[in-house]
């Protein structure tokens, strides 16, 4: 299994979802069981001096796809599988006054379950929590998504 | 109380949140107790031929602010008050294969409660459900947000 680098994941993400490229969001860390993305303050700032709620949602939401791409071989064994978001929730704790990063982790056993379920049933549901952090590490928002890795 | 037209609300929204302007989202109907916004397929399309989850979230989320702007006098009696999103959830039911609209309604009694709570306490919490529809009226996603109208 050849893993994609954060730069490759970012390029692929920008090609797949142009509006995410417009937000300037980049994948900065990605390895089996872990994904992290960064979002600049501009052009996501609102005129109240905070990052816009919809952009914050986006930088966390997309980790559900990126962590699977960083953990499973979607170009090999699981070729043709695509991660989808089924439902999601976000809780905003503090306004974001600058660039943020979002991060999420997934246990090795959960990755293996998704792989096996996917191969056996053509789809596998999984949940993922993420947190959005300020540059100083303060947690600004928390999210929880229900995803499905599905063969198309 | 002078109500803003959908065109004025759109212009104000685009000025306040540039990334929403980049998505091409417009307020198309706004009156006390009702708000509706439209979102074009481009540039919100992903390369799987569906509207991106984060853009769908956005077109519904922003109704929480627009419905209050269309229902209460934020330039007069409630000048200085700003609607904020505290938490939100979305459930995706069907992929969006073209332009969508999102709509939300609020009862007159609830508007009055928000007005009175705001004036009395300097803030008022309110919940708002919205739905996202395809051009043929099919419900594609449903959202539920917890907002606060707050004096700054």
> For the report, how would you describe the main beta sheet of chain A?
6 strands, antiparallel
**What is the oligomeric state here?**
homodimer
Following the backbone from N to C, one meets helices and strands of chain A in this order, namely HHEEHHEEHEE
Treating each run of at least 4 consecutive H or I residues as one helix, how many helices of chain A? 5
Structural class of chain A: alpha+beta
Shape of chain A: globular
CA radius of gyration of chain A: 15 Å
Mean pLDDT of chain A: 96
- Head-to-tail CA distance between termini of chain A: 21 Å
* Poorly predicted segments of chain A: none
Give the chain pair forming the largest contact, with residue counts.
A-B, 33 and 33 residues
How much helical structure, as a percent, in the residues of chain A? 25-40%
Tell me the total number of β-strands of chain A: 6
Strand content of chain A: 35-45%
In spatial order, strands of the major sheet of chain A run 1-2-4-5-6-3
């Amino acid at each position: 299994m050849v893993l994609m680098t954060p730069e490759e994941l970012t390029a692929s993400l920008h090609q797949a979802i142009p509006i995410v490229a417009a937000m300037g969001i980049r994948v900065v860390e990605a390895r089996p069981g872990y994904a992290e993305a960064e979002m600049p303050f501009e052009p996501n700032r609102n005129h109240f001096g905070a990052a816009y709620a919809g952009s914050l949602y986006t930088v966390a939401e997309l980790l559900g796809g990126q962590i699977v791409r960083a953990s499973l071989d979607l170009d090999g064994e699981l070729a043709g599988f695509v991660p989808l978001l089924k439902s999601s929730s976000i809780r905003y704790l503090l306004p974001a006054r600058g660039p943020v990063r979002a991060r999420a982790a997934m246990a090795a056993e959960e990755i293996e379950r998704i792989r096996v379920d996917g191969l056996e049933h053509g789809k596998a549901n999984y949940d993922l929590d993420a947190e959005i952090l300020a540059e100083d590490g303060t947690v600004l928002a928390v999210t929880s998504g229900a995803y499905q890795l599905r063969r198309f």
